[in-house]
Amino acid sequence: MQLMDMLTGVASGMKYLTEMGFVHKRLAAHKVLVNSNLSCKVSGFRPLQEDKIEAIYSTLHGGKSVVLWTAPEAIQYHRFSSASDVWSFGIVMWEVMSYGERPYWDMGNQDVIKAIEDGFRLPAPLNCPPHLHQLMLDCWQKERAERPSFSQIHSALSKSIRSPDGVGSSTLARRTLGSSITLAERPLPTFPAFSSVGEWLDAVDMGRYKDNFTAAGYCYLESVARMTVQDVLSLGITSLDHQKLILAAIQTLRAQVIQMHGRGVQV
């Protein structure tokens, strides 16, 4: 519930900025100030150096690349708007619900850009309610006009706080975005339940790719948990939906490994 309160606070701040005619352009979790009561305030809304496209690729505090939070049209055409801020807010939601995990893990800027162009979207964080992941996916719609407004986002999050069990069907209209939604809504067995990579693939209905994993040398679940997007693409899996499903399952597996060992999985 505290996480929901924080997200609602950020949405409220962005709603106000939008109504005042501001476009943030740099919204990210590290741009949100949190006090001792977990009250959130949005900071850092200053213009980018719009005469230099390199500004989009610059590195900010703590080595955080702007690309990870920036909407496709802002990267490609330098078109910033409240809709591009909505995309960034979706990434902030993912950061909060994953307890501060780095968006897109260890992917480089160009890999992130290419993956998004190909339709990849971040999978649901571990234990993230399906309706919240759906809201993230709504924020990450390719077409700006199809993304919700901050007023709609704030309303949806406020309803979620008041009625956390019944929001899934009453928030924004659901849209289809590949297999990520299906995976987010379906529980997977926990890591200790698997004795092999083959069993794990069977559990996510991807057993047809056992030979691909074996040929690439992924014979242990720990090594699978370290796989990146590029590693998955190198397996020779041509179905984009299957790539998304496997990547989402790897994210879940990675989180389970972290919980088991009490430390991060080095990638």
From TrEMBL:
<keyword id="KW-0547">Nucleotide-binding</keyword>
<dbReference type="Pfam" id="PF00536">
    <property type="entry name" value="SAM_1"/>
</dbReference>
<dbReference type="InterPro" id="IPR013761">
    <property type="entry name" value="SAM/pointed_sf"/>
</dbReference>
<keyword id="KW-0472">Membrane</keyword>
<dbReference type="InterPro" id="IPR011009">
    <property type="entry name" value="Kinase-like_dom_sf"/>
</dbReference>
<keyword id="KW-0675">Receptor</keyword>
<dbReference type="InterPro" id="IPR001660">
    <property type="entry name" value="SAM"/>
</dbReference>
<dbReference type="InterPro" id="IPR020635">
    <property type="entry name" value="Tyr_kinase_cat_dom"/>
</dbReference>
<dbReference type="GO" id="GO:0005886">
    <property type="term" value="C:plasma membrane"/>
</dbReference>
<dbReference type="GO" id="GO:0030425">
    <property type="term" value="C:dendrite"/>
</dbReference>
<protein>
    <recommendedName>
        <fullName>Protein kinase domain-containing protein</fullName>
    </recommendedName>
</protein>
<dbReference type="InterPro" id="IPR050449">
    <property type="entry name" value="Ephrin_rcpt_TKs"/>
</dbReference>
<feature type="domain" description="SAM">
    <location>
        <begin position="192"/>
        <end position="256"/>
    </location>
</feature>
<dbReference type="Pfam" id="PF07714">
    <property type="entry name" value="PK_Tyr_Ser-Thr"/>
</dbReference>
<dbReference type="InterPro" id="IPR000719">
    <property type="entry name" value="Prot_kinase_dom"/>
</dbReference>
<dbReference type="GO" id="GO:0005005">
    <property type="term" value="F:transmembrane-ephrin receptor activity"/>
</dbReference>
<keyword id="KW-0067">ATP-binding</keyword>
<feature type="domain" description="Protein kinase">
    <location>
        <begin position="1"/>
        <end position="157"/>
    </location>
</feature>
<dbReference type="GO" id="GO:0005524">
    <property type="term" value="F:ATP binding"/>
</dbReference>
<dbReference type="InterPro" id="IPR001245">
    <property type="entry name" value="Ser-Thr/Tyr_kinase_cat_dom"/>
</dbReference>
<dbReference type="GO" id="GO:0007411">
    <property type="term" value="P:axon guidance"/>
</dbReference>
